[in-house]
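User: tokens in, sequence out, please.
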């Protein structure tokens, strides 16, 4: 049985296999089977992409909220996991604490898929890599500039780049980078330095998961807005954003709505790579 909790759980060939399955013709691998989708944190893209991915595989998605499960309160994590395994072939969860996913996976009753945690967002990284491959025809040797706070999105993106031979440069204000080094990830403070020569420019909201309510960030992050002037430093680069986006903050409307933006292809690929991830998990479980 294989779980997918973080990109670092995958060896390069496994990551490549998921991307291959993401572009393969649809199969009915989940025909007559259920997939539990547990959401502690709501998301338009994650819910719609996951439900449609399950549907495309012939399965039945069941959306679950914390009040319905009482996980860790009304019932233990282990008992909830075992119960859901009675009905579902895959348990997918979008949670705050990554340790909750590890507890679910440790039960060993059903494959567990991380739809997001405070530390990791593997499904987003898979969609990012597929989008880069489609835009440039390759992943190896691609230079990606991530402008903003080092967070769960950029961590998973960095791990995917390290696995597949791409280069990630993260530009963050002092104090908002990763506390330590990551393989194949370069951390800088100057956004212009990151963008120079980039094939992809990637932006995210200024307030990441867990930082809600901190309005003081706007002044700190103002120099990190991706606008036309910054994009001029990489004249052939495509623009990506994991969404939701705030036009006039981390990205200008002219960039995200412009001809070099691939954010809607990137959003659609969330569905395709979710399908690929689940197919890969089923392959490992058979």
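Assistant: Sequence out:
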């Amino acid at each position: 049985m294989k779980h997918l909790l973080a990109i670092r759980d995958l060896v390069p060939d496994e990551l490549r296999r998921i991307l291959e399955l993401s572009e393969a013709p649809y199969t009915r691998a989940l025909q007559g089977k259920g997939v539990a989708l547990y959401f502690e944190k709501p998301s338009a893209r994650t819910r719609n992409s996951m439900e449609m991915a399950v549907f495309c595989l012939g399965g039945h998605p069941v959306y679950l909220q914390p009040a319905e499960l009482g996980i860790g309160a009304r019932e233990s994590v282990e008992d909830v996991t075992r119960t859901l395994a009675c009905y579902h072939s895959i348990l997918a969860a979008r949670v705050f604490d990554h340790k909750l996913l590890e507890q679910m996976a440790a039960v060993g009753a059903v494959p567990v898929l991380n739809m997001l945690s405070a530390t990791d967002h593997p499904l987003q990284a898979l969609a990012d890599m597929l989008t880069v491959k489609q835009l440039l025809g390759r992943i190896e040797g691609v230079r990606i500039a991530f402008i903003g706070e080092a967070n769960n999105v950029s961590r998973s993106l960095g791990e995917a780049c390290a696995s597949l031979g791409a280069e990630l440069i993260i530009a963050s204000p002092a104090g908002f980078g990763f506390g330590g080094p990551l393989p194949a990830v370069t951390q800088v403070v100057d956004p212009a330095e990151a963008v120079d020569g980039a094939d992809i420019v990637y932006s995210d909201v200024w307030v990441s998961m867990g930082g809600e309510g901190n309005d003081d960030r706007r002044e700190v992050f103002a120099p990190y807005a991706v606008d036309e002037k910054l994009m001029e430093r990489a004249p052939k680069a495509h623009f990506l954003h994991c969404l939701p986006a705030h036009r006039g903050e981390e990205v200008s409307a002219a960039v995200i709505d412009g001809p070099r933006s691939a954010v809607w292809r990137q959003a659609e690929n969330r569905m395709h790579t979710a399908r690929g991830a689940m197919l890969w998990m089923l392959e490992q479980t058979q």
